[in-house]
Design a protein that fits this description.
Oligomer: homodimer
Helix content of chain A: 25-40%
CATH topology of the largest domain in chain A: Aminopeptidase
CATH architecture of the largest domain in chain A: 3-Layer(aba) Sandwich
CATH class of the largest domain in chain A: Alpha Beta
Radius of gyration of chain A: 25 Å
Number of helices of chain A: 14
Number of domains of chain A: 2
Number of strands of chain A: 19
Chain lengths: ~450, ~450
């Protein structure tokens, strides 16, 4: 079998693949710090050179920030775009690192061999799993495994300021049939996963106004409405005793989990007790009739993220303030529309407060809907089968509680679904000192892409 | 009648009394600003000299701050202590004054003649009403109207730091049968009032702890307990839908208003709509089955004075914070004990929260009980009759929603009740630019004290 040849080539070439990754890891491409701007450009150039060596028509495209790496190559009926990022997080505090974060090394650990360096896992190591799969394919077949566009960003760790304009300006060039994103992790140490649904987000900031000025609680206490009471009553009423959000229509566009996904998720045997214990909690919050994974991945939320009013300094002031403030956000799922949810929230909130109080809403409210991939696209089941073959355990479609911005942008700007496949592990210490990437993640990651591309490209 | 002679003497001497008050008003005795420390001492010396001229054995007693003026004189079976303060508020913003705040003048206004100067109403004018009553009495009778102690403070506008130690160190000298305090106002423009009950205060500051660290609402939202929700639910539950505080035992030591006081208060026809409208509100809060005056004067409250947690800066952070904070105070009435109320609150609050959350309480909690004067003491009815005679309208016993610290200290440190009688008006602009005292307040205030002293001294 030709795929077997590719996999064998990957195995043989692993030491050289690690050398290439280490060369990239030696470039300190920290995107948040202007000091490292030339290093970011160097990393982009390194990748352009490597892509060209693989036969891609590649370039580093200038932006107001760091360059985008774009490469096109191969042929096939389905056009696939691969996304990753070459920039890395800062390395502070440096004294907590066991070695120079930009002097990568192989280390033996009780759990296996690891590549230790900033960016090893997030995201240079993951980016290279895909390029090494292409390299092995090319070596065996003489050509790339399909019609591929490679799109590598250099600002992911600094808020992606150039991303949306770049997508808009290069819409035709970057729109493919499906995006492949390699910036996520295995579900457990050796259980491969494809993220197929990511919750959206809607945000509201508002002020409850009562009296025209701050009042003294001696002169007015009891008789004058305290906006902190209005606010606490309002926010306490956001959920019913069963943990459901009380805003009328809030669940209108929420779909029940499919039996297929429910079964897969149940198979994960998510240990919510350990998950909560890790952060010092023991009692699941949220809807009482939903499983913890449903609550995290496929149910919407209403959360207060900020709350303030009255006197908050040292000591005491017996003030009845004129105003109380809150920031509230909603995690959205299925077809929930951010604008519709925010409108329903406003209408509900304004109906809750006394007639002599009022609410002002801040304008900067923004929202994004949930990203729900069309897993009816056979590419998803094909990729799941490929991952299952490689890892020896049935791969699962999982959800993500938060949004992954790039997946949302591909959908909203380019109208393109994304398949999120990654090989990072929970203990990779991304964004922290002593980041590492397991050699197993790297090796089996490359093999996984070869198997996936063999089936879908 | 001898009282008539005293009143006639007061009328005749009014121009000279105004001159004397103006001399005192010319001394800029601002207690908060060290620049004016010698002026404070000068004001104290001026009063000591005036008291000596009236036959008092008077001195300016040094304190770590500004001096206390103490004088003893006269004879009688009931020992009365008169309290007032000679220090004044700062005058900023100076450019809003029509004239130099320490160059007093008589001004004609549509509502009558006023004395314009800082301290005219708060509290030099009110202090001098009492001293002028003594002066007229002495002129007519050759002696003071009774056994009197004069006690004038110079730090009232700066938190009275020396007061409690001074009371403790001079307990025997300052303990009388009853204190007379002249630092309050008429109920309406021409309706005299005696404040006979002042609400107490208990304060609690606490933190609700949930997770061990701040969490991301994408990864944990819905499943992990949000302490802001715990806090809002806790605080929203402080009152039931009828506006009653829900803490068990909270009302145990609250007494119902006596029929006598209820009748007097009903006679006041308190315009709560105007009172609320003045601060931009229209709907009374608080217990639905209580009158507005009861709510303000004789019912306890639970109020949130400060509330904060999560992200409160500009923009948005979808954080589930680890902690939420609040400052809560209780206005107390009747025999409610601050410590007992705070204990009940703590017990109640800790029973409300989920088992994996906890509350920490800040230690600096302090409280003071309500001051409820023993109006069964015939001096109160006698003073009420005297005020009724002078002003031609039935004087009333009223309440105060806030505590007046000096009345509390006289009670807690010296075990002495106080009768609060004052002649200030709501439009006196105390603490503000263009403070004034009506000549009518000053004139009838002097006459009021002469009448009161004739009955009770």
């Amino acid at each position: 079998m030709i795929l077997d040849d590719v996999l064998a080539r990957i195995d043989d070439d692993l030491p050289q693949a690690i050398d290439r990754l280490m060369a990239l890891l030696r470039i300190p491409s920290i995107s948040t710090d202007p000091t490292f701007a030339t290093d970011c450009a160097r990393a982009a150039d390194w990748l352009v050179a490597d892509l060209r060596a693989l036969g891609f028509d590649a370039r580093a495209a200038a932006t107001p920030g760091h360059p985008m790496v774009v490469g096109h190559g191969g042929e096939g009926s389905r056009h696939l775009l691969f996304y990753g990022h070459y920039d890395v997080q800062p390395v502070d505090p440096l004294d907590l690192w066991h070695r120079d974060p930009f002097d990568p090394a192989l280390e033996d650990t009780p759990k296996g061999q690891v590549i230790r360096a900033r960016g090893a896992s997030d995201d240079k190591g993951q980016v290279m799993t895909f390029l090494e799969a292409c390299r092995a394919w090319k070596a065996v077949h003489g050509s790339l495994p399909g019609k591929l566009t490679i799109f590598l960003e250099g600002e992911e760790e600094s808020g992606s300021p150039s991303l949306i304009p770049f997508l808009q300006e290069n819409r035709a060039e970057l729109t493919a049939d499906l995006a492949l994103i390699c910036d996520t992790g295995l579900y457990e140490d050796r259980l491969p996963a494809i993220s197929t649904q990511l919750r959206g987000l809607a945000k509201a900031e508002f002020t409850v106004h009562a009296a025209a000025r701050d009042l003294h609680s001696g002169s007015y206490g009891g008789l004058a409405r305290n906006p902190l009471h209005v606010m606490t009553t309002l926010l306490a009423g956001l959920h019913d005793p069963q943990g459901r959000v009380t805003i009328p229509g809030f669940y209108d566009d929420v779909e029940e989990l499919s039996d297929t996904l429910r079964q897969q998720w149940q198979g994960l045997a998510f240990d919510h007790a350990a998950y909560l214990d890790d952060v010092g909690l023991s009692i699941p919050a949220g809807e009482v009739d939903r499983t913890p994974l449903e609550i995290l991945w496929s149910r919407p939320t209403a959360e207060v993220n900020g709350l303030w009013g009255g006197y908050t300094g040292a000591g005491f002031k017996t003030v009845l303030p004129a105003e109380a403030h809150a920031k509230v956000s909603f995690r959205l799922v299925s077809r929930q529309d951010p604008e519709k949810i925010l409108t329903a929230f406003r209408t509900w909130a304004e109906a809750q407060i006394p007639a002599d109080c009022r609410i002002t809403w801040h304008d900067e409210i923004k929202g994004s809907p949930a990203s729900v991939m069309a897993i009816t696209d056979p590419a998803f089941e094909a990729a799941r089968a490929a991952l299952t073959e490689e890892w020896g355990r049935p791969a699962v479609f999982i959800g993500e509680g938060g949004s992954i911005p790039i997946a949302g942008y591909f959908k909203t700007v380019l109208g393109m679904d994304a398949m999120l496949v990654g090989f990072a592990k929970d203990d990779d210490r991304i964004h922290s000192p002593n980041e590492k990437y397991d050699v197993e993640s790297f090796h089996k990651g490359i093999r996984s892409w070869a198997r996936i591309l063999a089936r879908i490209a």
